[in-house]
Design a protein that fits this description.
The complex is a heterodimer of chains A (632) and B (72).
Chain A: H1 3-28, H2 34-37, H3 41-67, H4 74-94, H5 102-133, E1 141-144, E2 150-153, E3 163-166, E4 176-180, E5 183-186, H6 188-191, E6 197-199, E7 204-205, E8 210-211, E9 216-220, H7 228-238, H8 245-276, H9 279-292, H10 296-315, E10 318-320, H11 323-330, E11 334-338, H12 339-343, E12 344-355, H13 359-369, H14 376-385, E13 394-398, E14 402-407, E15 410-415, H15 417-422, E16 435-441, E17 444-455, H16 459-468, E18 472-476, H17 481-491, E19 495-497, H18 502-515, E20 522-526, H19 532-537, E21 540-544, H20 550-555, E22 558-560, H21 567-601, H22 607-626
Helix pairs in contact in A: 1-3, 1-5, 3-4, 3-5, 4-5, 4-9, 5-10, 5-22, 8-9, 8-10, 9-21, 9-22, 10-21, 10-22, 11-21, 13-14, 21-22
Chain B: E1 2-8, H1 13-25, E2 29-35, E3 40-45, H2 50-64, E4 69-71
Antiparallel strand pairs in B: 1-3, 1-4, 2-3
Helix pairs in contact in B: 1-2
């Protein structure tokens, strides 16, 4: 609660307390407060006192804004309504009628302030929840000086190549590479991932993480304004600068709503007043109108819902760049995926071993032959083997075919079909999809290893979930038809386009964009590497594993900080729920407001009901908006 | 030129919308968006007259909400 809110809360409580005392005595005393001294002046002054406590700022703002040419200002409208009610009561008092209406005027203003206070509290709270989530801005960096001591420095003064020290409990201030030490990093604020990430010498670290266990030295690779933390803060701070249709509708509605209601109020006071000559009744009804004329509840509840939606998503490491994208994404029904690195892990791994006799022997021999290669295929074989590799072999590369490893009498042949054929080794052909490595020992074939880019574990589940939501799922890939078909069948993709060159991807997306129906929303999902043009071209561009890739953050509309596809259906659920709540709020607020207007026009609703309705709508809409930010 | 500013003491959502409408009418302003939730204004205006335009923008803001300040 801010200072201002605290002050206003006390003011509300005090005036409400005083009001209740007055109100109760007024109603308990036979003949009311005015019977005490037999004059309407007593209740007038008592209520006026409360009125001024609760309403002095509203009155002041109303006066000030009139001089600024702001007529349809809610402060002004509230003043007209309440001062009008007072005036009516005074008029009655002067004419010797029973005075009523002082209490109403006070109550209207008290409840108006309650509503304002609640709005301010709710928006403040929801702002805070986002800023806490994004509490990743580093305050300082420990710059390591030449004499070996560390100095606290502003992160923006640190240059690329500088070495910084990061102690346990401190935030990583800049992106860099660990040069000394090993530790675990908490990446929760960035990715929503609760498992700490292990880092050691050579690992890249990303600003915004928190160092957990021990001190590390890091060589800075990016200046502060370029670092992940700056990019994310910029993105979050500018989110909701892009407004959704719903928000634009509501501000437009508000623009006409207030003048129309005020105009109707004027007509309501004048025309039936002239006809019936019963001025006080009709003026009173018109004043009730003014109480409902403030559109603030409507205007606040819609952006608040979007804000809560964006906040909810960011808790799961999903950054949405604006409420318009949230709105669009809730309708997204065509999902186009890049294959490598998005649906698949983008790294090669042993998929299958087809041994003549012993599978372990095949992989052991292959590991020996591929001992010193940096090729991803060699790495995947070594990773699969995972044991100490026998030393002492002489390795000979056979260009375009493979490797021959020799030690004593043993000759290991490890490579493709060509290597087997060149050495006249009969082998069993492997027809699986991917890269095949054949292994032979001393001229005898021992087996083959099938290596392929593996699907992410969650791919099938995510595609299934999207298909269940009625979406089309399409994969774009540079791989050949056979591989693409296989992947599509395995994951349940509804379509695929194979053998595409990188530049064809844009064309393909263009084609899909021009052939889709107007209400369809096309979403492209890529890992952000070389995808920027497609990400920008599609209706909603989603970049995955955005941490560390500036291009992706800039080109996309939604960034999944965690390299996990499950963020997509999750974001879709959040977007859908947000939109549902936005529509509920719009419909609910408009319907209730109109209902109150109609009821007060017919004299069924009095000012009490009007103000309860108005503030009640605001509170309910805000509470409803807060519902977006629950667990998913 | 597009710039972002933080707004202080922007207390009501409808006021933000009103300011936005007033600012959009200022000559030389190409786009303007005020977010009540993030208390930010993003404005795109002619490079040459940016300073002058910003003065008018500040005036428009004061007109709607006199307490509201544009933080540069």
């Amino acid at each position: 609660m801010s200072k201002k809110e605290k002050k206003n809360l006390i003011r509300i409580i005090v005036s409400l307390g005083l009001f209740l005392i007055l109100f109760i005595t007024d109603n308990l005393l036979e003949g009311g407060l005015s019977s005490v001294v037999d004059s309407w002046l007593l209740p007038f002054f008592l209520y006026l006192f409360v009125y001024l406590i609760i309403g002095y700022d509203v009155l002041w703002r109303a006066v000030r804004n009139i001089f600024n040419g702001q007529i349809f200002d809610e402060n002004f409208l509230m003043c007209v309504a309440t001062v009008g009610a007072f005036a009516l009561a005074v008029y009655r008092g002067i004419n010797g009628q029973e005075t009523e209406g002082f209490d109403e005027a006070c109550a209207v203003l008290i409840f108006y302030q309650v509503g304002e206070w609640f709005q301010s509290y709710a928006t403040g709270k929801s702002r805070k929840s986002i800023s806490e989530l994004m509490d990743i801005r580093p305050d300082y960096a420990n710059l390591l000086l030449n004499d070996g001591t560390a100095e606290k420095t502003d992160p923006s003064d640190v240059r690329v190549g500088d070495i910084i020290l990061i102690n346990p409990g401190e935030k990583v201030p800049l992106d860099g590479v660990v040069t000394e030490g090993a530790s675990a990093l908490d990446t929760k604020a960035l990715t929503g991932e609760s498992l700490p990430r292990e880092v050691n010498t050579g690992s890249e670290v990303i600003s915004g993480c928190v160092n957990l266990t021990s001190q590390i030295k890091v060589r800075v690779t990016k200046e502060f304004y370029d670092s992940t933390v700056s990019k994310i803060l910029e993105l979050v701070e500018n989110a909701s600068g892009q407004k959704s249709k719903a928000e634009n509708f509501i501000t437009k509605f508000a623009k006409y709503y207030t003048p129309v209601v005020c105009g109707t109020a004027l007509l309501l006071a004048v025309i039936p007043g002239l006809i019936t000559r019963n001025w006080s009744t009709w003026v009173y009804r018109a004043l009730s109108f003014l109480v409902v004329s403030c559109p603030c509840a409507l205007v606040i509840s819609v952006p608040l819902s979007f804000f809560a939606g964006i906040g909810a998503a960011s808790r799961y490491g999903i950054l949405i760049k604006g409420s318009n994208y949230l709105e669009k994404f809730s309708r997204a029904n065509i999902f186009v995926f890049d294959k490598t690195g998005t649906l698949t892990k983008g790294n090669f791994a042993v998929e299958k071993i087809s041994p003549e006799e012993n599978a372990d022997e095949v992989i052991r021999l292959a590991a020996i032959a591929e001992h010193h290669s940096d090729h991803p295929i060699a790495k995947s074989i070594r990773a699969y083997y995972g044991k100490e590799i026998e030393n002492g072999y002489t390795l000979t590369n056979v260009a375009g075919a493979g490797v021959i490893a020799e030690k004593g009498d043993n000759r290991i042949y490890c490579g493709n079909e060509k290597l087997m054929e060149m050495n006249n080794i009969p082998f069993v052909k492997e027809n699986g999809i991917g890269t095949v490595v054949y292994v032979a020992l001393n001229g005898r074939f021992v087996g083959s290893v099938l290596i392929c880019d593996q699907l992410k574990t969650e791919t099938g589940q995510v595609i299934g979930a999207l298909n269940d939501m009625g979406c089309r799922t399409v994969m774009l890939t540079g791989d050949n038809e056979a591989i693409a078909k296989n992947v599509a069948a395995e994951t349940g993709l509804t379509g695929y386009k194979a053998s595409l060159l990188p530049q064809n991807k844009v064309e393909e997306v263009e084609k899909m964009l021009s052939s889709k129906k107007q209400k369809d929303v096309l979403c492209f999902v890529g890992d952000g590497i070389n995808d920027a043009p497609v990400l920008m071209r599609s209706d909603v561009g989603i970049a995955m594993g955005g941490v560390g890739s500036d291009a992706a953050i800039e080109a996309s509309d939604i960034v999944l900080m965690k390299d996990d596809l499950r963020g997509i259906p999750l974001a879709k659920r959040i977007a859908k729920k947000t939109m549902a709540i936005v529509f509920q709020n719009i419909i609910f607020s408009i319907v209730v407001k109109i209902a109150i207007l109609v009821l007060s026009a017919f004299g069924i609703a009095n000012m009490w009901l009007a103000v309860f309705g108005d503030v009640g709508v605001a509170v309910i809409a805000i509470l409803n908006a807060m519902r977006v930010n629950t667990k998913y | 030129m597009k710039k972002n500013y933080k707004l202080e003491n922007l207390d009501c959502a409808n006021c933000a919308a009103k300011m936005e409408r007033l600012i959009a009418k200022i000559d030389g302003v190409q786009t303007v968006s005020i977010s009540f939730m993030t208390q930010r204004m993003s404005i795109e205006a002619d490079d040459m007259r940016f300073e002058e335009i910003m003065e008018q923008v500040a005036k428009a803001c004061r007109k709607v909400e006199p307490d509201c300040k544009i933080i540069k």
